[in-house]
Amino acid sequence: MLLLAIESSCDETAAAVVRDGRHALSNVIASQVDVHARYGGVVPEIASRKHLEAISVVVEEALERASVTLAEIEGLVVTRGPGLVGALLVGLSFAKAVAMARNLPLVGVHHIEGHILAPQLEQAVPFPYLALAVSGGHTHLYRVDGVGRYRILGRTLDDAAGEAFDKVAKLLGLGYPGGAVIDRLAAEGNPKAIDFPRPMLHKHQLDFSFSGIKTAVLNHVRAQSELPAGQDLRDLAASFQAAVVEVLVKKTLRAAEEQNLERIVVAGGVACNSGLRQAMGAACAAKGKTVVFPSPLLCADNAAMLAVAGDSYLSAGERDGFALNALASWPLDRAGR
Ligand code: ATP
Ligand code: MG
Ligand code: FE
Question: Which residues bind Fe cation per the record (predicted)?
């Protein structure tokens, strides 16, 4: 099927045209990050308004770049949740309007379902696999047995890894969002300079906790007379990143071994992190596991990723009605059909 996909769960307005849930003909992303940066985080009311301003242009651009007209589109897929309700409603209402006007089928999917199926747009990753969804709002381990068949194995009990990156960047005065900045600084720092805690590493379960690492960074900074700069800052960034990465890698490998899974997918914004890519790659190679990272564009929020599940559901005859509502929180285990 030729699908139009729309994503607006947070601060990216995104639209894509995808054929057969595998080939992205376009994947357009309008980020609001500059607008929110001055507030140090996403302001929900502003996000909704910016989505409203951007959505028509982004959808038109997605059709244009794919060289497709609306008349050729055979169905719509849209993020139903989780996310900011006001933001989600913009994409959802737009998708409903197009579906109604053109008499097309519509399906709402889970944002994290999009993230963990995203690599299917670049290569066929056979099921089952272990997925680490690591982003601004999630640090979750899932067993993925197929489209719509997800079982949660572990999750963060407090901050998401991306949230920890963002909070640490903020307290170091590095702006928002901070993941990519810390990643760049860490590349030139000594990861062994400061021994930050590795929370829950030795607990025999698959949950995570990142707020303790963040507090340890805060305490370290408070003990100094001024904010770290130069090599001290690079060493701090590298040491913080190493602590987060070590926990992510070890728990993910533990989950794959417990579940007897040969393949691991790492997805979501933090999957862009070069330290995580390198360490996960090395650990998987050592254990004979295959790890797949989507390319950076598909790790971040985008609409094409939604079409993998959307195509599968619509092709099976699943449809959502126009009463479909946005969900601020929505456990992925209950998102299958
Ligand atoms: P969710 O997907 O959980 O709903 P979200 O959509 O806001 O949350 P994403 O857009 O998937 O999150 O990811 C954004 C997060 O990824 C931010 O916290 C950002 O700092 C982080 N991030 C992006 N690039 C990197 C990087 N290179 N290293 C570490 N973190 C990164
Ligand atoms: Mg975002
Ligand atoms: Fe996301």
Answer: 111, 115, 301
* Other C-beta atoms lying within 10 Å of the C-beta of residue 224: 10
SS3 (DSSP) at 319: coil
- Please give the ipTM for the structure prediction: 0.98
- Pick one of 3.40.50.720, 2.30.40.10, 3.30.420.40, 2.40.10.220 as the CATH number of 125-293: 3.30.420.40
Q: Please tell me the residue having the least CA distance from ligand 1 atom 2.
A: 135
137 is in an annotated binding site: yes
Q: Annotation-wise, does 166 bind a ligand? A: yes
Ligand having the closest approach to the CA of 300: 1
- What is the block-wise mean pLDDT of the chain (337 residues), using blocks of 10 residues? 98 98 98 92 95 98 98 98 98 98 98 98 98 97 97 97 97 94 98 96 92 97 96 98 98 98 98 98 98 98 98 97 97 86
CA angle 178, 24, 68 (to 5 degrees): 120
Structure pTM?
A: 0.97
Using the mean position of ligand 1's atoms as its centre, give its distance from the Cα of residue 105 in Å: 31
Ligand 1 pocket list (CB less than 6 A): 9-10, 83, 111, 115, 135-138, 162, 165-166, 177-180, 183, 268-270, 272-273, 300-301
Distances (CA, A) of 120 to 17, 104, 168: 15, 24, 32
DSSP of 45-65 = HHHHHHHHHHHHHHHHHHHHH
For residue 210 the two structure tokens come to: 């990142």
115 is in an annotated binding site: yes
Class of domain 2-117+298-334: alpha beta
Ligand nearest to the CA of 32: 2
